[in-house]
């Protein structure tokens, strides 16, 4: 008598998809489906993405309980065995803001934009994110995210490494307005020119903009002295 091995798996974790034109059935786990969705975001996905793929919230909860999935923020999950990289936290911030019907028109900005571009020594302790001035963020904000509100023009946002990010020019304006860190801004302009993000004419224009900013600050100090 030959013993037959039977593989018993939890039914909630699987979905059967019948192959057209053949009798075989291809079995995909729910986790496999989520892995495919999360590949473009360093192992991150949202509850909304899962829901649109027909994966119930109860399935996400059970996967979290079993350690197969991590809940990084409300509405955002991470598949643990995906290796993190220097951009993972920024992707997480973007997904957090977009989760639950959040704004689509947003961008990583300020010092975070400088880090993503890799054009300065900026090392912010939070992730800076700019959303539309009237955007409603229904999620509890993670402590490591700082939200700025501004209505960015289409030409002020670009995609870099798959992330929405303010252009170098807009980032310079934001840094001058929010921090006044002139040496860092000058370094960023030189770095952006060196890396090819801006051309020579744009670099010169931005340097003139910084010079005007410095003159304005100095005039203000002289007037108040």
How would you explain this protein's 3D organization?
The protein is of the alpha+beta class and 225 residues long. The protein has 2 domains: 26-78; 88-224, no CATH class. It is 41% helix and 18% strand. The chain has helices at residues 30-38, 47-52, 57-65, 88-98, 110-117, 168-178, 182-195, 200-224; strands spanning 14-18, 25-29, 44-46, 70-73, 76-78, 107-108, 127-131, 145-149, 157-160, 163-166. The strands form 4 sheets. A 3-stranded antiparallel β-sheet has the order 3-5-4. It is elongated, with a radius of gyration of 23 Å.
What's the layout of helices and strands?
Elements: E1 14-18, E2 25-29, H1 30-38, E3 44-46, H2 47-52, H3 57-65, E4 70-73, E5 76-78, H4 88-98, E6 107-108, H5 110-117, E7 127-131, E8 145-149, E9 157-160, E10 163-166, H6 168-178, H7 182-195, H8 200-224
């Amino acid at each position: 008598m030959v013993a037959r091995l039977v593989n018993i798996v939890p039914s909630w974790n699987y979905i059967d998809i019948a192959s057209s034109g053949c009798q075989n059935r291809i079995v995909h786990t729910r986790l496999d489906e989520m892995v495919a969705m999360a590949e473009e975001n360093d192992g991150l996905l949202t509850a909304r993405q899962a829901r649109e793929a027909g994966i119930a919230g109860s399935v996400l909860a059970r996967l979290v309980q079993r350690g197969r999935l991590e809940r990084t923020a409300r509405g955002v999950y991470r598949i643990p065995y995906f290796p993190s990289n220097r951009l993972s936290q920024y992707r997480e911030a973007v997904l957090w803001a977009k989760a639950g019907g959040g704004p689509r028109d947003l961008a990583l900005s300020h010092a975070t934009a400088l880090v993503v571009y890799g054009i300065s020594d900026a090392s912010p302790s939070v992730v800076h994110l700019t959303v539309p001035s009237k955007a409603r963020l229904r999620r509890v904000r993670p402590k490591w995210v700082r939200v700025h509100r501004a209505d960015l023009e289409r030409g002020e946002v670009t995609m870099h490494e798959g992330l929405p990010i303010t252009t170098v020019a807009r980032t310079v304006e934001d840094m001058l307005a929010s921090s006044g860190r002139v040496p860092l801004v000058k370094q960023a302009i030189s770095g952006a020119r060196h890396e090819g993000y801006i051309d020579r004419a744009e670099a010169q224009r931005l340097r003139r903009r910084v010079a005007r900013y410095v003159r304005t600050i100095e005039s203000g100090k002289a007037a108040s002295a």
